[in-house]
Specification:
With 283 residues, this protein is an alpha/beta fold. Helices cover 32% and strands 20% of the residues. The protein has eight helices and ten strands. It starts with a helix and ends with a helix.
Protein backbone atom coordinates (compact mmCIF):
# COMPACT_ATOMS: atom_id res chain seq x y z
CA UNK A 1 0.00 0.00 0.00
CA UNK A 2 2.75 2.43 0.94
CA UNK A 3 4.54 1.60 -2.31
CA UNK A 4 1.43 2.43 -4.36
CA UNK A 5 1.05 5.76 -2.54
CA UNK A 6 4.70 6.55 -3.23
CA UNK A 7 4.28 5.72 -6.93
CA UNK A 8 1.12 7.85 -7.08
CA UNK A 9 2.87 10.83 -5.49
CA UNK A 10 5.77 10.46 -7.93
CA UNK A 11 3.41 10.33 -10.92
CA UNK A 12 1.57 13.41 -9.66
CA UNK A 13 4.87 15.23 -9.17
CA UNK A 14 6.04 14.41 -12.72
CA UNK A 15 2.64 15.43 -14.13
CA UNK A 16 2.88 18.84 -12.44
CA UNK A 17 6.46 19.32 -13.65
CA UNK A 18 5.57 18.34 -17.21
CA UNK A 19 2.33 20.36 -17.34
CA UNK A 20 3.30 23.59 -15.59
CA UNK A 21 7.09 23.81 -15.80
CA UNK A 22 9.53 23.90 -18.68
CA UNK A 23 13.27 23.44 -19.09
CA UNK A 24 14.27 24.96 -22.45
CA UNK A 25 16.35 22.56 -24.52
CA UNK A 26 19.32 24.35 -26.08
CA UNK A 27 20.57 23.14 -29.44
CA UNK A 28 23.40 24.60 -31.54
CA UNK A 29 21.44 27.84 -31.98
CA UNK A 30 18.98 29.25 -29.44
CA UNK A 31 17.09 32.53 -29.20
CA UNK A 32 15.32 34.18 -26.25
CA UNK A 33 12.92 37.04 -26.95
CA UNK A 34 10.74 39.30 -24.84
CA UNK A 35 9.85 42.89 -24.14
CA UNK A 36 12.12 45.44 -22.54
CA UNK A 37 13.21 44.22 -19.06
CA UNK A 38 11.01 41.12 -19.30
CA UNK A 39 13.84 38.84 -18.15
CA UNK A 40 15.07 37.52 -21.50
CA UNK A 41 18.70 38.43 -20.75
CA UNK A 42 18.48 36.75 -17.33
CA UNK A 43 17.23 33.53 -18.94
CA UNK A 44 19.77 33.67 -21.78
CA UNK A 45 22.72 34.29 -19.43
CA UNK A 46 21.60 31.50 -17.10
CA UNK A 47 21.34 28.90 -19.87
CA UNK A 48 24.62 30.08 -21.38
CA UNK A 49 26.39 29.58 -18.03
CA UNK A 50 24.55 26.31 -17.43
CA UNK A 51 25.65 24.89 -20.79
CA UNK A 52 29.17 26.21 -20.36
CA UNK A 53 29.67 24.52 -16.99
CA UNK A 54 28.17 21.25 -18.23
CA UNK A 55 30.55 21.25 -21.20
CA UNK A 56 33.56 21.99 -19.01
CA UNK A 57 32.70 19.06 -16.72
CA UNK A 58 32.16 16.74 -19.67
CA UNK A 59 35.51 17.64 -21.26
CA UNK A 60 37.26 17.30 -17.88
CA UNK A 61 35.92 13.75 -17.47
CA UNK A 62 36.67 12.75 -21.08
CA UNK A 63 40.21 14.17 -20.89
CA UNK A 64 40.79 12.17 -17.71
CA UNK A 65 40.13 8.92 -19.58
CA UNK A 66 42.07 10.08 -22.65
CA UNK A 67 45.13 10.88 -20.53
CA UNK A 68 45.10 7.35 -19.17
CA UNK A 69 45.40 5.97 -22.71
CA UNK A 70 47.88 8.72 -23.71
CA UNK A 71 45.57 10.22 -26.31
CA UNK A 72 45.47 13.88 -27.36
CA UNK A 73 43.38 15.92 -24.95
CA UNK A 74 40.45 18.03 -26.08
CA UNK A 75 40.61 21.81 -25.70
CA UNK A 76 38.67 23.19 -22.76
CA UNK A 77 35.53 25.00 -23.97
CA UNK A 78 35.38 28.74 -23.39
CA UNK A 79 32.56 31.20 -22.83
CA UNK A 80 32.33 34.08 -25.33
CA UNK A 81 30.14 37.11 -24.69
CA UNK A 82 29.55 40.59 -26.10
CA UNK A 83 28.69 41.98 -22.63
CA UNK A 84 30.83 41.77 -19.45
CA UNK A 85 30.20 38.73 -17.26
CA UNK A 86 31.42 38.13 -13.72
CA UNK A 87 32.88 34.76 -14.75
CA UNK A 88 35.97 33.98 -16.84
CA UNK A 89 34.92 34.78 -20.42
CA UNK A 90 36.35 35.82 -23.78
CA UNK A 91 35.09 39.15 -25.21
CA UNK A 92 33.39 38.74 -28.56
CA UNK A 93 35.27 40.53 -31.35
CA UNK A 94 34.56 41.57 -34.92
CA UNK A 95 37.16 39.08 -36.15
CA UNK A 96 35.13 36.27 -34.59
CA UNK A 97 31.89 37.53 -36.14
CA UNK A 98 33.53 37.87 -39.57
CA UNK A 99 35.14 34.44 -39.21
CA UNK A 100 38.70 35.80 -39.46
CA UNK A 101 39.47 33.90 -36.25
CA UNK A 102 37.65 30.91 -34.79
CA UNK A 103 36.16 29.86 -31.49
CA UNK A 104 37.56 27.09 -29.36
CA UNK A 105 35.74 23.89 -30.29
CA UNK A 106 32.72 23.05 -28.18
CA UNK A 107 32.45 26.55 -26.68
CA UNK A 108 29.38 28.55 -25.69
CA UNK A 109 28.75 31.92 -27.37
CA UNK A 110 26.34 34.45 -25.88
CA UNK A 111 25.20 37.55 -27.81
CA UNK A 112 23.03 40.09 -26.00
CA UNK A 113 20.60 42.30 -27.97
CA UNK A 114 21.13 40.43 -31.24
CA UNK A 115 19.41 43.13 -33.32
CA UNK A 116 22.24 45.52 -32.38
CA UNK A 117 24.74 43.00 -33.77
CA UNK A 118 22.86 42.02 -36.93
CA UNK A 119 19.58 43.76 -37.66
CA UNK A 120 17.30 43.69 -40.67
CA UNK A 121 18.85 46.90 -42.05
CA UNK A 122 22.05 45.01 -42.90
CA UNK A 123 20.29 43.56 -45.95
CA UNK A 124 21.53 46.44 -48.11
CA UNK A 125 25.13 45.27 -47.65
CA UNK A 126 25.46 41.99 -49.55
CA UNK A 127 28.92 41.14 -48.24
CA UNK A 128 27.85 41.71 -44.63
CA UNK A 129 24.68 39.68 -45.20
CA UNK A 130 26.78 36.84 -46.58
CA UNK A 131 29.01 36.84 -43.48
CA UNK A 132 26.00 36.90 -41.12
CA UNK A 133 24.35 34.06 -43.02
CA UNK A 134 27.47 31.88 -42.94
CA UNK A 135 28.13 32.68 -39.28
CA UNK A 136 24.71 31.43 -38.19
CA UNK A 137 24.24 28.58 -40.65
CA UNK A 138 27.63 27.01 -39.95
CA UNK A 139 28.17 27.86 -36.28
CA UNK A 140 27.43 24.30 -35.16
CA UNK A 141 29.94 22.90 -37.66
CA UNK A 142 32.69 25.49 -37.18
CA UNK A 143 32.61 25.13 -33.39
CA UNK A 144 32.38 21.31 -33.62
CA UNK A 145 29.22 21.16 -31.52
CA UNK A 146 29.35 24.56 -29.84
CA UNK A 147 26.30 26.58 -28.77
CA UNK A 148 25.24 30.07 -29.85
CA UNK A 149 22.65 31.79 -27.65
CA UNK A 150 20.99 35.06 -28.67
CA UNK A 151 18.55 37.35 -26.92
CA UNK A 152 16.58 40.16 -28.54
CA UNK A 153 13.35 42.09 -28.10
CA UNK A 154 11.71 41.23 -31.42
CA UNK A 155 12.36 38.46 -33.95
CA UNK A 156 11.20 40.62 -36.85
CA UNK A 157 14.08 43.07 -36.32
CA UNK A 158 16.75 40.39 -36.74
CA UNK A 159 18.75 39.84 -39.90
CA UNK A 160 17.30 37.15 -42.15
CA UNK A 161 20.51 35.15 -41.71
CA UNK A 162 19.55 34.59 -38.06
CA UNK A 163 15.84 34.07 -38.71
CA UNK A 164 16.54 31.49 -41.42
CA UNK A 165 18.83 29.54 -39.09
CA UNK A 166 16.30 29.18 -36.26
CA UNK A 167 13.06 27.25 -36.35
CA UNK A 168 12.04 27.64 -32.71
CA UNK A 169 12.70 30.26 -30.07
CA UNK A 170 11.70 30.99 -26.48
CA UNK A 171 9.42 33.93 -25.71
CA UNK A 172 9.67 35.36 -22.18
CA UNK A 173 6.37 37.00 -21.25
CA UNK A 174 7.39 38.23 -17.80
CA UNK A 175 9.33 37.22 -14.72
CA UNK A 176 8.08 36.95 -11.12
CA UNK A 177 10.59 38.09 -8.50
CA UNK A 178 8.36 38.60 -5.45
CA UNK A 179 5.37 36.96 -3.78
CA UNK A 180 3.19 39.11 -1.54
CA UNK A 181 5.88 41.81 -1.54
CA UNK A 182 8.48 39.29 -0.30
CA UNK A 183 11.43 38.32 -2.54
CA UNK A 184 11.43 34.73 -3.76
CA UNK A 185 14.61 32.62 -3.34
CA UNK A 186 14.45 32.02 -7.11
CA UNK A 187 13.00 33.67 -10.21
CA UNK A 188 9.96 32.39 -12.07
CA UNK A 189 10.02 33.10 -15.79
CA UNK A 190 6.82 32.61 -17.77
CA UNK A 191 7.99 31.06 -21.03
CA UNK A 192 6.41 30.00 -24.31
CA UNK A 193 8.23 28.04 -27.01
CA UNK A 194 7.36 29.49 -30.41
CA UNK A 195 7.96 28.14 -33.89
CA UNK A 196 9.23 30.56 -36.50
CA UNK A 197 7.46 29.76 -39.76
CA UNK A 198 8.75 30.12 -43.30
CA UNK A 199 6.67 33.23 -43.99
CA UNK A 200 8.13 35.02 -40.97
CA UNK A 201 5.16 34.73 -38.66
CA UNK A 202 4.57 32.94 -35.38
CA UNK A 203 2.31 29.90 -35.76
CA UNK A 204 -0.34 30.52 -33.15
CA UNK A 205 -4.13 30.36 -33.09
CA UNK A 206 -5.72 33.79 -32.65
CA UNK A 207 -8.30 32.31 -30.27
CA UNK A 208 -5.61 31.32 -27.76
CA UNK A 209 -4.58 33.87 -25.14
CA UNK A 210 -0.80 34.04 -24.82
CA UNK A 211 -0.92 33.76 -21.04
CA UNK A 212 -2.94 30.52 -21.26
CA UNK A 213 -0.05 28.64 -22.88
CA UNK A 214 2.81 29.94 -20.73
CA UNK A 215 4.94 27.57 -18.67
CA UNK A 216 7.11 28.27 -15.64
CA UNK A 217 10.87 28.17 -15.84
CA UNK A 218 12.83 28.34 -12.57
CA UNK A 219 15.93 30.56 -12.68
CA UNK A 220 18.24 30.81 -9.63
CA UNK A 221 18.77 34.31 -8.31
CA UNK A 222 22.57 34.00 -8.37
CA UNK A 223 22.50 34.66 -12.10
CA UNK A 224 21.96 38.37 -11.33
CA UNK A 225 25.41 38.45 -9.72
CA UNK A 226 27.00 37.28 -12.98
CA UNK A 227 26.00 40.25 -15.16
CA UNK A 228 24.72 43.82 -14.93
CA UNK A 229 21.06 44.15 -15.90
CA UNK A 230 21.75 47.77 -16.90
CA UNK A 231 25.19 47.30 -18.50
CA UNK A 232 24.35 49.49 -21.51
CA UNK A 233 23.78 52.47 -19.21
CA UNK A 234 27.52 53.13 -19.69
CA UNK A 235 26.60 54.64 -23.07
CA UNK A 236 24.73 57.52 -21.40
CA UNK A 237 26.06 57.67 -17.81
CA UNK A 238 28.39 60.57 -18.63
CA UNK A 239 25.75 62.72 -20.36
CA UNK A 240 24.20 65.84 -18.87
CA UNK A 241 21.27 65.11 -16.55
CA UNK A 242 17.97 66.84 -17.32
CA UNK A 243 16.14 67.60 -14.06
CA UNK A 244 14.35 70.89 -14.78
CA UNK A 245 11.08 70.41 -12.86
CA UNK A 246 8.35 72.98 -13.50
CA UNK A 247 4.86 73.61 -12.12
CA UNK A 248 2.14 74.92 -14.42
CA UNK A 249 -1.62 75.31 -14.69
CA UNK A 250 -1.48 75.44 -18.47
CA UNK A 251 -2.19 71.88 -19.65
CA UNK A 252 -2.14 72.63 -23.37
CA UNK A 253 0.69 71.09 -25.40
CA UNK A 254 2.06 73.42 -28.05
CA UNK A 255 5.20 71.48 -29.02
CA UNK A 256 5.56 68.11 -30.69
CA UNK A 257 8.64 66.39 -29.27
CA UNK A 258 9.83 63.84 -31.78
CA UNK A 259 12.86 62.31 -33.45
CA UNK A 260 11.54 64.19 -36.49
CA UNK A 261 11.91 67.97 -36.37
CA UNK A 262 8.29 69.00 -35.85
CA UNK A 263 8.97 71.86 -33.45
CA UNK A 264 6.28 74.36 -32.52
CA UNK A 265 3.02 73.73 -34.34
CA UNK A 266 1.86 77.35 -33.93
CA UNK A 267 4.80 78.67 -35.91
CA UNK A 268 8.48 78.00 -36.25
CA UNK A 269 10.36 74.99 -37.50
CA UNK A 270 7.17 72.98 -38.20
CA UNK A 271 5.71 75.54 -40.68
CA UNK A 272 9.16 76.18 -42.08
CA UNK A 273 9.63 72.48 -42.87
CA UNK A 274 6.18 72.28 -44.52
CA UNK A 275 7.06 75.24 -46.75
CA UNK A 276 10.36 73.64 -47.70
CA UNK A 277 8.58 70.39 -48.63
CA UNK A 278 6.10 72.29 -50.83
CA UNK A 279 8.94 74.12 -52.58
CA UNK A 280 10.67 70.81 -53.32
CA UNK A 281 7.44 69.29 -54.67
CA UNK A 282 6.93 72.26 -57.04
CA UNK A 283 10.45 72.02 -58.40
Amino acid sequence: MAFLIFVGVCLLFFFIIHHFFKLPKINALALFTGGVKSGKTTCAVYFALRNYRARRIKVFIVNGFRSIFHKKLYDKPLLYSNIPLKVPYVPLTTDLLLRNSRFVYGSVIYISEASLVADSQCLSDKERSKQINLFNKLIGHETCGGVLIYDTQCVADLHYGIKRAISEYFYIHHMVKKFLFLPLPFLLAYVKECRYSDDGTVIQSESVDTEDVLKLCIIPRWVWRKFDCYCYSALTDNLKVENNIIKTKDLLCRDIISFNDYGNVNGGSYKKNICEVKKIEKT
